[in-house]
Amino acid sequence: VATRGIFRDITKRKKTEEELKQKTEQQQVLLSSIPTFVYYKNTESKLITANKAFAEMVNVPIDQLVDKTAYDLFPKEQAEHFHIDDKSVMESGKSAMNIEEKFTDAKGKTRWASTSKIPYFDDKGQVIGMVGITSDITEHKMAKDALQKAHDELEKRVEERTAELAKSHGELLRTKNYLQNIIDSASEIVVSFDKDNKVSTWNKQAEYITGFKQKNIVGRHISKLKVFDNPKELLDDVQYIYDGKKPESDTLVLKAKSDVKKIIKTS
């Protein structure tokens, strides 16, 4: 009895299958070891598979996630939002990166996530699904919001302080103007000097007597002004006053624009 058969060498195919199986197992181990949520969906937005972190987040075993949609795992409002994003990615064939969104975990707690959704294609270039990669950024978001709140509070305080200073400045300016009006209304000459020996006050009566305007006198050093007949003597008298001593002279000689000298009794 003879037996005939056709024998094919399938060694190469078996090797390829083994390599593919090994690669798949390696990928699954890798995906299961990372805390990031990774999941695959078909064009109907139904889950094909997901990693351990995703399964734990929704509290559903990995083998029971197949064919689940967002509506099966999340509140309706969130699911609607996720579904719209899925549809946009798969219809456009373009990735959506770093979407910041809220989600509710299996314990009912609202958390924040950063999600990227990438379409994947078959050999003909047709979209056949998408992969989602989601990171829980709740702690980062809370820290960022706390920092922003602190920044806003600081800006508010700065604005309030600025307003207070502006109000104080306005009051000081009004007081200064009020005093200046009193000085300008005086019938006597009012002249004062600062610690740098510059004229700080020159009232209307001084203008009238000498012919020199306030704007040309105030802020200038005694030695630079022609209106003072003996600037050296005046500088000595001013220094005596700052030292708490009585000046040697009780008069001030002013020289008007007309070169007429005016002797003023000081006090």
Q: Your description of this structure?
A:
This is PAS domain S-box protein. Residues 1-22, 97-149 form the PAC domain. Keywords: Coiled coil. It comes from marine sediment metagenome. Residues 23-93, 175-267 form the PAS domain. This protein has 267 residues and is α+β, with helices and mostly antiparallel strands. It folds into 3 domains: 11-136, Beta-Lactamase (2-Layer Sandwich); 139-185; 188-265, 2-Layer Sandwich (Beta-Lactamase). It has 8 helices and 9 strands. The protein has helices spanning 11-33, 52-58, 70-73, 76-92, 138-185, 204-210, 214-217, 231-242, and strands at 37-41, 47-50, 96-104, 110-121, 127-136, 191-193, 199-202, 251-255, 261-265. Strands 2-1-5-4-3 form a 5-stranded antiparallel β-sheet, sandwiched between helices. A hairpin with a 5-residue loop joins strand 8 and strand 9 (261-265). The longest helix is centred in the middle third of the chain and has 48 residues, at 138-185. The radius of gyration is 44 Å and the shape is rod-shaped. The N and C termini lie far apart (148 Å). 13% of the residues are buried.
Condensed summary:
The chain has 267 residues and is of the alpha+beta class.
Q: Which series of helices and strands comes N to C?
A: HEEHHHEEEHEEHHHEE
Question: How does CATH name the architecture of the largest domain?
Answer: 2-Layer Sandwich
Output the CATH topology of the largest domain.
Beta-Lactamase
Helix content: 40-55%
CATH H-level superfamily of the largest domain: PAS domain
Class computed from helices, strands and strand pairing: alpha+beta
Whole-number tally of structural domains: 3
Uncertain runs: none
How many helices does DSSP assign? 8
Task: Specify the overall morphology.
Answer: rod-shaped
Beta content comes to 15-25%
Mean pLDDT: 83
CATH domain class name of the largest domain: Alpha Beta
Radius of gyration: 44 Å
Largest sheet, spatial ordering of strands: 2-1-5-4-3
Major sheet summary line: 5 strands, antiparallel
GO biological process, one term: regulation of DNA-templated transcription
Keywords: Coiled coil
Pfam families: PAS, PAS_4
Organism: marine sediment metagenome
